[in-house]
Design a protein that fits this description.
Structural class: mainly beta
CATH topology of the largest domain: Jelly Rolls
Number of strands: 22
CATH class of the largest domain: Mainly Beta
Helix content: under 10%
Strand order of the largest sheet: 1-20-17-22-15-14-13
Order of helices and strands: EHEEEEEEEEEEEEEEEEEEEEE
Distance between the termini: 19 Å
Radius of gyration: 17 Å
CATH superfamily of the largest domain: Jelly Rolls
Largest sheet: 7 strands, antiparallel
Strand content: over 45%
Number of domains: 2
């Protein structure tokens, strides 16, 4: 694991703070900043693309979340336009042209794979997609009422370990638990406080954070929360 910026809770990284000051670049791959996190299953970097370029064959699944400016992704005659706080999943093997504004800043989450998932074309994350019931945290980890949780995955990898979409929940309090996953999260509504043995940090709507594998942290949300997520979690 590689983290570049000190933070108060070891499991959580403030991605907007990490990405600030990323040098402009003209190459989709070579222009990426040193990663906020990297292991053999997940790499999360910032890039500040300028101009236009083409990717002939994407070697991994990727999720891109624009922090500032605009990014266009054109593939097979369809163009996705991403503005601030908008995101897309780009599957393994995709061929696409990209165009970036002169102030574009984004975070890109790459998950190694060898085949596309549920779609072979880039797909924009739909934050208004109908959400389906999803499992709440395990009862033994809750420190209060059981929440009602819902989610929708716009993209799911071929091995079902990497996915991206939207999720929401009623308030809940969960104790600190170990994390097997690496998750990138944009809060769309509400706020959450994360706590470990040393400190607490609170993120609110509009904030972007990342959770890393390891000791994890506690979760406390005292109001409705909705988020965009991209996560890689080994099945075994």
């Amino acid at each position: 694991m590689t983290t570049l910026r000190e933070h108060t809770v070891a499991a959580v990284v403030d991605i907007r703070a990490y990405a600030a000051g990323t040098a402009p670049a003209t190459d989709w791959f070579a222009g990426r900043a040193a990663p906020a996190f990297a292991d053999d299953k997940a790499v999360i970097c910032a890039f500040a693309l300028r101009g236009e370029g083409q990717v002939e064959t994407l070697p991994t699944d990727e999720f891109v979340l624009v922090l500032a400016g605009t990014l266009e992704i054109e593939s097979a005659g369809t163009t996705i336009v991403l503005g601030p706080d908008e995101s897309a999943a780009i599957p393994f093997g995709a061929n696409f042209i990209w165009r970036a504004s002169d102030d574009m800043l984004a975070v890109v989450y790459a998950a190694p794979t060898d085949q596309p998932g549920n779609t072979a074309a880039p797909i924009k994350i739909d934050t208004n997609a109908p959400l389906n019931p999803s499992n709440p945290p395990a009862l033994e980890n809750l420190l209060g009422e059981v929440p009602t949780c819902r989610g929708f995955s716009d993209y799911v990898s071929a091995n079902a370990e990497f996915c991206a979409g939207t999720w929401d929940s009623t308030p809940y309090h969960r104790r600190q638990i170990p994390y097997r996953q690496v998750e990138l999260m944009l809060l769309l509504a509400g706020k959450v406080t994360f706590t470990d043995a040393h400190a607490s940090v609170t993120f609110a709507a509009g904030d972007v954070c990342m959770f890393v594998r390891g000791d994890g942290c506690a979760w406390l949300s005292e109001e409705y929360v909705k988020k965009v997520f991209a996560t890689q979690r080994p099945l075994a």
